[in-house]
Amino acid sequence: MALEEAAKIAAQCRHYAMCKIDFLGTGLCQSGAENCYVSYFPQGRMDIYHALAQGQIPVTEGLVDITETCNLCGICDKQCYFVTELRPLKVMKALKDYVENHLAAGNKIERSETDPVLGELKRLVGNQWASNDPAILTAYATDPGPFTGQQMPKYVVLPESKEEISEIVRLIARYEIPYAVRGNGSSVMGLVFAKDGLVMDLVRMKKLSIDKENWCASVEPGVSAYELQRAAEKHGLRANLAEPAALVCANIMCSGIFSTFSNAYGTAADNFIDAEFVDQEGKIFSLSQRDTPNLYGFQFPELPSPPLCTRVDIKLHPVSKDEEGLLVPFAGFFEAATFARDLSQRRIGLAVAVLGLEYIAVFASPTNAVAQKVRKIFKENLGIEFAVLVIGDKWAIDAVENLAETVIDQNLLKTLLLGIPRMVEENLLNLLESGHDTEVPYKLLFQKDMLPLFESALKTSPEDFAKSVDPDLQDFYADLYSRPEMTDMVWLNTFRIISSRMGREKHVVAFIVYLPLDRMEIVMDINNGFGRIGNKHKVKHDYGFLTPLDLGKRAVLEYDYYLDHTDPVEVEAMQKAIMEVGAMLEKYSREQKGVMWIKNVFNQGFARKEGFLYR
User: Fold this and answer.
1) Helix 394-403 to helix 333-345 angle, to the nearest 10 degrees?
2) Whether the Cβ atoms of residue 59 and residue 68 lie closer than 8 Å to each other
3) Which three-class secondary structure string do you get for 116-183?
4) What pLDDT shows up at residue 434?
5) I need a labelling partner for 537 at 20 to 30 A (CA). Which of 62, 66, 159, 186 fits?
């Protein structure tokens, strides 16, 4: 039974790479930090155990080393439970037992033979940083996407400099070997795989420097969003970045960075000053050179594979000491989106976003079971289905409070967040519902004079909040949520560690589309189209978020579909749904000004946003 449980956990790995950054202050997997290959991190070990359970790989020299370097410290359990509620330590133990039993039985250990290509790769980067061992390769061969399947490469190489990358590109061109460049996680659509080719993992390129006087940073492609944000924070600055485990250079290259802060900071070429690349022939160049390819220009529908980014000089932004966050609740999407558009047009707020109920409930709740109850409470008992998030200085917050009928400020949010486990109790629901006769309960219940009642009723404390998680993690959660940043809207939206919880119940497939926010009928049609297609194919789905761009003229919208990637029935349904969604978005992108599916922006993240927002 223990082996079956471990195999089930291993198969459910989402590949979000959160185990590769220290986002909870727990430290990092020592083996992964030292050896760098995905296979040495918990994510890779999950893939390896799944492959062993499926009989896909033998016990190899690399696998023996991978298991021996795991010290069963348990950091992965804390990190992964926070994101997905999975307990990977059971897999780590089962993997060690499997290999130890194999060795004790005197069974064969496979040794990978070298060849001319691998020999030259090792000469370029060092023996340790190029491999064809199946235990290394298998962690670069799959993702939870519904279309990919296994695509095993022949080689994995980890360069440490642009010069090494240049030589690798020249080498594989000579041998006519296909290759893919990989960031921290995966693309979920098979775009970082190279079947029978080479995968170039840039995780070792970690140089990061802050130019405080010029409000900018220079980062190599192994630097994650979380690492850059932490470095910027020390200087009172902030970057506009994606999810914490996303590698900055790869994220810009892929689609251009967008976040809730894109309301003020922009997207695509708005975010960087200069960038350095290695082209398909191994030539090194930067965008500041006059004779370089024009990566600022946008081409519809898409461009061929771009050059490989080896450095980005990214803009940073000052953080004022009076920044706060608040939520403005709404019962309907149209009203929420209109309010967000008006804030953007008035130049109010740094971060502005219309959040859906799935985001709100999942982000705030310690477990998925609690999240589903919170979702029901917000919708059925409080009358909330959407909320406009605003991060801004004192003057912006004052303006929003004057414009909005009801707000959830930082103090009320902290009370609600820490009190969520008690909120799902029936006796508290009766308290919340008593004494009001309005059709929209939240408008009465979220008045400022109600805060003492909430604090008394919810008995907010980190210890109570922690009672919802697994017993052996309750002390850790109580300590974690005693930290002020874990209930601070500004910090949480800057570092985005709770964004990864979107895939907690099932793997998430996010559809991103740019829209004309001044034409709300199109926004509503596309949003409703996502829902209609999801219902048709019986795929779990929900609205994600919308952030205004260009002073409310445009917006970026995310709509999410969910699947159990280990269930063939759900995979087939998701495939059909994605195909239909793709046809819908392609049609809108061709026929409506201001509509652009992010698929058509792929590989053009360095382009000026005007090229695709105003085409």
Assistant:
1) 140
2) no
3) HHHHHHHHHHCHHHEECCHHHHHHHCCCCCCCCCCCCCCEEECCCCHHHHHHHHHHHHHHCCCEEEEC
4) 53
5) 186
Helices 89-104 and 61-68 cross at an angle (nearest 10°) of 130
Q: What is the pLDDT of residue 302?
A: 67
SS3 389: strand
Task: Show Cβ contacts of residue 474 under 8 Å, excluding neighbours closer than 6 positions.
Answer: 466, 467
Q: What is the CA radius of gyration of the chain?
A: 24
- What's the pLDDT score for residue 428? 59
**Eight-class DSSP state of 47:** H
Is the Cα torsion angle 220, 226, 230, 235 positive or negative in sign? Answer: positive
Pairing state between β 386-392 and 324-330: antiparallel
Residues 375 and 589 sit within 8 Å (Cβ to Cβ): no
What are the angstrom distances between the C-alpha of 574 and each of 534, 540, 544?
9, 9, 17
Q: What is the structure's pLDDT at 447?
A: 80
Low-confidence ranges of the chain (pLDDT < 50): 435
Name the residue with tokens 């971060």: 351
Tens digits of per-residue pLDDT, 474-531?
999 999 999 999 999 999 999 999 988 988 999 999 999 999 999 999 999 999 999 9
The residue among 94, 184, 82, 79 whose CA lies nearest residue 139 is: 184
Which residues have C-beta within 8 Å of that of residue 445, sequence separation ≥ 6? 382, 432, 436
Residue range 161-177, pLDDT digits in tens: 999 999 999 999 999 99
Asked if 199 and 193 count as a contact pair (C-beta separation under 8 A), the reply is yes
Q: 416 and 327 in contact (C-beta within 8 Å)?
A: no
- With b for 16 or more beta-carbon neighbours within 10 A and e for fewer, the 466-502 pattern comes to bebbeeebbebbbebbeeeebbbbbbbbbbbbbbbbb
Query: Which residue shows structure tokens 């009172």?
Result: 236
Residue type, 88: P
Place of tokens 């308290």: 431
**Contact of 18 with 80, CB cutoff 8 Å:** yes
Q: What is the reported pTM?
A: 0.95
- Collapsing DSSP to helix, strand or coil, 274 comes out as strand
The 10 Å Cβ neighbour count of residue 26 is 17
